[in-house]
Every structure is written in C-alpha cells, then in structure tokens.
C-alpha cells in the first residue's frame, strides 16, 4: 500500500466492531485507527462525506457471491474517491466464553450468511440449536456481555480478541477460497493521499446503439489497459438504460491517461471513481 | 408471450403467497396456476429440477438496485432454461382489516425493503410504529389470520385479495419507476414450449488477455445482435477469474445463430441459458 496519512485515522466500518470491515480497516490503515460503526452503507458514505470520519472501508465484491451492486450506485453518486483496496479471506471461527468446550455448547448464533458458510462444520454437530442473528460480531458481543454459557457465536478472530472469547474451533468455513474485496474511501482532497496507482475504477455510459460498448472496450484495450471487472447497472429514473462500472489495470499511467482521454471523447457519460494500487490478498 | 403449455401449471415462487413472485407468475402463466412456495432461490431451482413443479418465477434484476447476481450463478449451474421474462412494476399498498382507517392504525409492519420504498408516505405518519418483518405478504397474512386490529402491512394488492384485507392507501411507493424483472424457468424439455424468440441470455468466459472481451463483444455486434446487459461474475474456485453473463436481443434468429457460432469459436466457455420473447412491462 502506498498511502500517506497521519495516524490515528477515524475510519467508518459497516456493521459493529469485530466484524470483517474492522479487520480490513486495521490491515490497511493500521491498528491505531478509531473505528466508527455505521449501520448501513448509506450511513457509511454520509459519515465520510460530512467528514465525521477521515476514511471508510466498504465491501464491494465477494469471490463467491459476486459484486455488491447497490454499493456501486452509492459510490457513483457520492463525493468520495477510492484510494485503495484489499482482498480479505473470510475466516470463520467458533467463539465462546473461556471454559466452554465443544461438548458444553448447546446453541450457536450468527448471521445467516456465516451459518451458511460453515454448513460442513455445523453438520458434524446436529445436537446444536442454530440461531440466526443480525451480525456475527454482535452475537459474539452478546455472549461476552451477558456471560452466556452453553452458547457459541460464529465470527472473526478479532471478535474473539475484542470481546474476550476463546476460539473453540478455528477456520470452520467450508470454502477456503472465500475472499471479500474492500475499498478504502475518502472525501476528495481528504486526509489520505495515494502516491502511485496501477488500477482505476470508472463508470461510463455508451451510446444506445449496437456495438457502442464493444467499441469503447476496444479503445481501452488498444491503449494497453486491461479490464478486470464490468457490470451494467440500471440508470435510476431512466428505465433499463445502463451505466457500466469497470475496473482497469495498467503498467503505465500514461497508457491509462490515454484510455481516459478516449473515454472522455466517446462515452456519453464518464467518471473516475478512484486511482489506486491494486490490493493484495490478506489471510 | 408465445408460450405453449397445458394448464394448470405448478409454479414455484420465492417467498410466500401474495408476494410479487406470485403476481409475476399469474401475469405470465395464468390465474389458474398452482403456486408452490419456496423459502430460498436455491430451493426454487431444486424444486424445478426435480420436477416437483412445472416452472418457476425468479427475480433477476431490479431497475433501482441492479442485478441479483447470486441468481445468475444458480441459473448457470442448474439444468433449467429461461423460456420467458416479465417486467413487473413494484406497487406497494397499505393493507389492514376491514373497518380500519388511517386514523385507527398504530403500527405498520413489512419487509425492510418495502418500508424503505415507502419512506415518503410513512414520513407523513410519524405517529405510526414501524416494525420490520421477513416478508411483505407474511405480514399481511399474520394480520388476517390473527385478526390484529390497529395494525397495517405494506404489500401487494394480491396479498389484500388473498388474505381478505382492505387497501387503506394505494400506490404508496415513493419511486413509480421501480420495476423488477422476473425470469420464467423450466427444466429442459419441460412442460412449457416457447415458439419464437428475440432475446437470449448467455454466459461465457474470455481468454485472460487484454482486449479479449472487447473482441467477443465486437463479434456479437458485427452479427447485428445487440447487448442489453453484461455482468462479470467470479468463477467459484478460480479466484478472481470471471464469467460474463449477458443478454442479447435480435430481430433475426439467423443473426443470433451467427453470434452463437462466433462465441462457440472464440469464447473459452459458452452456455446459452435460454432463448425467449423479450418481456413487456406490467403495471
């Protein structure tokens, strides 16, 4: 990562503390961040725009489920820019109060998505009652605060650390190739500067005629710039007209600028959402 | 619609009766269908594959929120084919027991998404307590079955009809341009035949080199076939490799077959998910 900023940063995360957004924030912006919980992605964007926080982490894509499309529209309509990204492996653990064992557990509580990610492990324990909750980290916190015995939560190792729980069983997720991509967002001219880039997120519209999109993509490719993601999103208010969101990767910033010049000339709408260093995968 | 089948069809819908999936099913396959409730989209696909039902309706895209990407992967990995589609305007109503008025209502219950769609209307009644539920139609059914007074649900006019509720306030959704696109699915060689088509849903992979996608899209455009939707989806198990899902529209079936031939030659993976008549918009 090639970000420059003064610590500590106030960083908005979606959900409660101890969830994967906080892990992504710590891995990218340091352990001394001040996490600010936001209930929804909309609230997270608003907090960053109003400078209540210096930055935000936003999940945008998952290697199993695909893009989180509503977040693209939120980003496009915001005053924020993307300054970085990270790919975080989603590792789930069985968490409970100190002293508990797999045998003493009677109930397991977590978010439906986390429960689904751990079906193989949970299948080995048909005696456990499974309870759905709003948030993995919230389930962990409730067990900790209520000192609830006989109950476990599924969640991150950070949640165990924050709430003083033991990891009864580590890495219980069925799919070890489940990564979520998070974007680091700041207000334009905000407190984080990125000095180099080899990736950009853009959105654009093409003329409503056959071949218009193919022509734009060919122009981009002809500049030596590669496309790593593409989604057509409905243009709200203009029924079934589309805006395309794409990620571009490049070795040379000059080649990327050439692609930008082409897009400015040929696309009917064009906006750069951010230029940043392609993220690494974190375990 | 140019579908041929013998009525009545058993039709899987996602969610409970009275929800928008059932409206889409009735509008496309007739009022004499036998609706079969499925809790999840995965269950809906399995019921259709096992011929427990003759067909299924599946929401795939919304004009505000965008594509429902996990459903593309479900479709791609299934033995089902798309035989039709419909665009349904999402109209929300305030439903309550006969005898209730706007003044007698104290609580309003519905799915969080429906509540969000009606924020303008609900904002005019700050005296109401808002309660979130799992399903719009379920909230309506509970009020009906429990004969709960002073409580209203937000839901479809079909839910009002099915559960004997009155419409206290019609069309309370803020955005009148909120359409959801539903696909009609059957098992291959199932009980529904479609005789004509001017639209196809396909998925394909391109070589992992700059310009490969642009070249494929240009080939499609050169056949005189237009592209109306495009999403890159992660290939599960092959981290950050992508499969593209696209919709093609055409005037001439021969031109479409030409595009299919080209795709078979140039794409590294290619599958047709269905050929069908482009759907109309239903109010």
Automatic annotation (TrEMBL), chains A, B:
Q: What is its EC number?
A: 4.2.1.51
Ranges for the ACT domain? Answer: 201-277
Q: Specify the domain of life of the species encoding this protein.
A: Bacteria
Which GO molecular function entries does the Swiss-Prot or TrEMBL record give?
A: prephenate dehydratase activity
Matching entries from PROSITE patterns are given as: ACT, PREPHENATE_DEHYDR_3
Q: Which Gene3D superfamilies match?
A: 3.30.70.260, Periplasmic binding protein-like II (3.40.190.10)
InterPro entries, from UniProt?
Answer: ACT-like_dom_sf, ACT_dom, Chor_mutase/pphenate_deHydtase, Preph_deHydtase
Site (Essential for prephenate dehydratase activity) residue list: 180
Q: Which GO biological process categories is it annotated with?
A: L-phenylalanine biosynthetic process
* Pathway in which the depicted protein is active: Amino-acid biosynthesis; L-phenylalanine biosynthesis; phenylpyruvate from prephenate: step 1/1
Q: Where is the Prephenate dehydratase domain?
A: 10-187
Q: Does the keyword rRNA-binding apply?
A: no
Q: Which GO terms describe its cellular component?
A: cytoplasm
Keyword annotations: Amino-acid biosynthesis, Aromatic amino acid biosynthesis, Lyase, Phenylalanine biosynthesis
Classification via Pfam families: PDT (PF00800)
Q: Which transformation does this protein catalyse, written as a reaction?
A: prephenate + H(+) = 3-phenylpyruvate + CO2 + H2O
The record's PANTHER family line, in alphabetical order, gives: PREPHENATE DEHYDRATASE P PROTEIN (PTHR21022), PREPHENATE DEHYDRATASE-RELATED (PTHR21022:SF19)
What name is this protein filed under? prephenate dehydratase
């Amino acid at each position: 990562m090639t970000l420059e900023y003064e610590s500590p940063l106030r960083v908005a995360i979606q959900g409660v503390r101890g969830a994967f957004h906080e892990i992504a924030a710590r891995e990218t912006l340091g352990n001394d961040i001040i996490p600010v919980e936001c209930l929804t992605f909309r609230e997270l964007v608003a907090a960053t725009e109003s400078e209540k926080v210096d930055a935000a982490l936003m999940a945008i894509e998952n290697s199993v489920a695909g893009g989180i499309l509503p977040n693209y529209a939120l980003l496009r309509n915001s005053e924020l820019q993307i300054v970085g990204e990270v790919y975080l492996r989603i590792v789930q653990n069985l968490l409970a109060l100190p002293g508990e064992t797999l045998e003493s557990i009677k109930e397991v509580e977590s978010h439906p998505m986390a429960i689904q990610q751990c079906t193989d492990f949970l299948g080995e324990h048909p005696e456990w009652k499974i309870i759905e909750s709003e948030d993995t980290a919230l389930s962990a916190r409730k067990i900790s605060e209520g000192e609830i015995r006989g109950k476990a939560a599924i969640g991150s190792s950070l949640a165990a650390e924050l709430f003083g729980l033991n990891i009864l069983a580590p890495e219980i997720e069925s799919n070890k190739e489940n990564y979520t991509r998070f974007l680091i967002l700041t207000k334009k001219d905000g407190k984080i500067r990125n000095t180099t880039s080899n990736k950009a997120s853009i959105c654009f519209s093409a003329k409503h005629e056959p071949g218009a999109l193919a022509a734009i993509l060919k122009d981009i490719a002809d500049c030596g710039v590669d496309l790593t993601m593409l989604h057509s999103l409905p243009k709200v208010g203009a029924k079934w007209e589309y805006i395309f969101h794409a990620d571009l990767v490049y070795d040379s910033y000059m080649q990327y600028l050439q692609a930008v010049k082409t897009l400015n000339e040929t696309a009917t709408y064009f906006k750069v959402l951010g230029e940043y260093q392609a993220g690494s995968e974190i375990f």
